[in-house]
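re: ur question from earlier - yeah i can do the single chain one, its not a big deal. heres the input i used so u can compare w yours
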Amino acid sequence: MSTDQPSPRPVPLTTADGYGLTALHYPAVGAAQARLFVAGATGVAQRFYAPFANFAASQGIDVWTLDYRGVGLSRPPDLRGFRMNYIDWARLDLPALLDHVEAQGQGPIWMVGHSYGGHALGLLPGNARVQRMATFATGAGWHGWMPPLERARVMLLWHVIGPALVHSTGCLAWSRLGMGEDLPRDVFFQWRRWCQWPRYFFEDPELPGLAEEFARVCTPIRAVNAIDDRWATPASRDAFMQAYCNAPLERVTLDPRSRGMGPIGHIGYFRPRAESLWRETLAWLRAPLAATPMH
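and the output i got, formated as tokens:
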């Protein structure tokens, strides 16, 4: 990585409903060949993606990361009483970033998702502006896709630990468990609701029409899931990704041990030891469209 790489620049954004967000821009080293934005996972602050963003910027790509409303640099002073819809991150927050990215420079626009970020493409207004998406650890969230021990832990989180934290703190105070960023209470309850179904929010009767929205997506997608990712197993990925039924889709099932990478789990895709994955991802994003396989 270039030692002359500048520090990321804060980018203030305002959503269509007037909420103020903070993104970070990692300028390309040299002439920018493309524009890339990262759509992060639930409970993961944008600073976590800095190693990947710096790497991609060192390869001549303009990169933006974002903290969704209620998280990190976009969090209000107190989450108690803060109300939102979990889908707001994709319907309102990411569009504000995409509009900004589209106005900057030239070249293709790429999206890199992590978990929720892979869900977001199908919910994102104007998603045809995204020419390719590579996503990691995106799955359907249902406990039945998880190994038995993880299934038990998740059920404990949904029905005992999570409600107790929300009752006592007014939010899902994940930081107390060392599990990530604190989350607004509405995110917790919607997330728990959707995870009761094998196909996640597509089975929610309160959200009609989602399947049709996802079916309209034609953006090529590469979905990578590690076999040691207990939250988003390859089977969970396949259950969710079938919704992108008209998008060219490449599924990659990763065995990190065979690659000498060490454990990946649900978030290790963006740790520095995963640099070989980043190189493969950027190579796929740059490849001719004709090389992208269908389902």
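Residues 70 and 110 are 25 Å apart (CA to CA). not sure if urs matches, ping me
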